[in-house]
């Protein structure tokens, strides 16, 4: 059931994965608004409006028509689900397990893949600000993003998130206390970094997100699957204890 939620190209449907539109929102400000178009594991369109707090200037960016952004977290989660299914299905239909330890070993391998799949959705990658600045996402938009704007897309649980960082250039006279920030899922105002022989500080951070229902379904099925695997392991352990019991 979890694998079906990822719209696998090997599912035999033959047709293209449908596109879904999601409206970005936040309970805080309306500095950032947008609509994202998701097609399986790819963002095929992004329409983002950004209000600059300094002068209330309204900026509008969209993906270039020839570009789409692959969401590595969804790809990885899907691949781990495929591996779990392969582990369960790559035996002859008449194959019989000979020992409980053989089943336990299989359950451990399946649970490892299911845990990795779930973790890819629940634990976004930690990135440094220079990594975000040098990533391909900055080249996706038309018009081109100004040098004082950084963006990052990622999955967090059942949500597709967009973070927009507004920067200001640090003057040479103010860099004596320069401390570059390390890797993080979300950088806070005041974080500093160096990129292209220029030093910057994050002045404003805006995070907007949208719920992707089928990601929520997949997370639920991961949890149920792991529980079923553990229940089978527990039953085998109980039977093994009875089998090993020798009354005097």
From TrEMBL:
- Family as reported in the entry's similarity comment: Belongs to the rogdi family.
One Gene Ontology cellular component term attached to this UniProt record is: RAVE complex
Q: Where is it mainly found?
A: cytoplasm
Query: Known InterPro entries for this protein?
Result: RAVE2/Rogdi (IPR028241)
Name of a matching Pfam family: Rogdi_lz
Q: Which residues form the signal peptide?
A: none
* Location(s), subcellular: Cytoplasmic vesicle, Secretory vesicle, Synaptic vesicle
Listed name of the protein: Protein rogdi homolog
Task: Please state the gene responsible for encoding this protein.
Answer: Rogdi
Q: Which organism is it from?
A: Ramphastos sulfuratus
């Amino acid at each position: 059931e979890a694998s079906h939620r990822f719209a696998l190209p090997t599912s035999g449907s033959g047709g293209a994965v449908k596109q879904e539109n999601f409206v970005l929102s936040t309970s805080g400000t309306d500095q950032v608004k947008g609509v994202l178009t998701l097609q399986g594991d790819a963002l095929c369109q992004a329409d983002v409006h950004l209000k600059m707090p300094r002068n209330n200037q309204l900026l509008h960016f969209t993906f270039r028509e020839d570009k789409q952004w692959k969401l590595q977290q969804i790809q990885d989660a899907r691949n781990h689900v495929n591996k779990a299914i392969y582990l369960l299905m790559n035996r002859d239909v008449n194959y019989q397990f000979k020992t409980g330890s053989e089943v336990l070993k299989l359950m451990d391998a399946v649970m490892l893949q299911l845990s990795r799949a779930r973790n890819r959705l629940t634990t976004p990658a930690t990135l440094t600000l220079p990594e975000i600045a040098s990533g391909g996402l900055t080249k996706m938009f038309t018009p081109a993003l100004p040098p004082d704007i950084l963006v990052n897309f990622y999955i967090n649980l059942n949500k597709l998130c967009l973070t927009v960082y507004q920067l200001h250039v640090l003057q040479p006279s103010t860099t004596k206390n320069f401390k570059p920030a390390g890797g993080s899922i979300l950088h806070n105002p005041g974080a500093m970094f160096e990129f292209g022989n220029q030093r910057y500080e994050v002045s404003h951070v805006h995070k907007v997100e949208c719920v992707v229902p089928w990601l929520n379904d997949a997370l639920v099925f991961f949890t149920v699957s792991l529980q079923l695997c553990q229940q089978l392991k527990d039953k085998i352990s109980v039977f093994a204890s009875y089998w090993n019991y020798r009354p005097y």
